[in-house]
Amino acid sequence: MEQYFFQTQTEEETKKLAEKLALLVKPGDVLTLEGDLGAGKTTFTKGLGTGLGVRRTINSPTYTIVKEYTGEIPLYHMDVYRLEESDEDIGFAEFFQGEGVTVVEWASFINDFLPEERLAIEIRRKDEYTREIVMTPMGEHYEFICKELYR
Ligand code: ADP
Ligand code: MG
């Protein structure tokens, strides 16, 4: 599978990349975010929210699993870290097929529930400020998005 590599040196750059991505996604899109604690998954999601026209402050939904934000396109922000030991379906499909864009932090914990077509994003912490962001499109729609982002 083809991968697309990006590098950022600041939190702002990561947000900007996510903002650009926000201009390319459509309702019903699913983005997964992997990376260690402190890699920048929530930071990326904040940028995405800005790009989608979300006005409320986005912060980690650790205690709720999913938070919904109103925007030009709604944003469904999931952090499924707490589901690591469970195989509980909290109604994921309704979000994935909904009117919003879904972002899933720690998505590998709910692998069985993820749609086949999605954009897999991995954030690798290289040093305190440098991040390598690797995007793996799963499906033609996401392939197109990655190519546009890369230009
Ligand atoms: P996660 O959700 O993956 O646990 P957060 O987004 O909450 O991570 O935290 C990332 C932390 O790394 C923040 O404190 C942010 O300021 C810092 N940071 C430093 N450089 C970058 C960068 N290039 N991109 C994103 N975050 C960065
Ligand atoms: Mg987080």
Automatic annotation (TrEMBL):
Its main location: cytoplasm. Pfam families: TsaE. It is found in: Cytoplasm. The gene is tsaE. This is tRNA threonylcarbamoyladenosine biosynthesis protein TsaE. InterPro entries: P-loop_NTPase, T6A_TsaE. Keywords: ATP-binding, Cytoplasm, Magnesium, Metal-binding, Nucleotide-binding, tRNA processing. Belongs to the TsaE family. Gene3D superfamilies: P-loop containing nucleotide triphosphate hydrolases (3.40.50.300). The keyword Metal-binding applies.
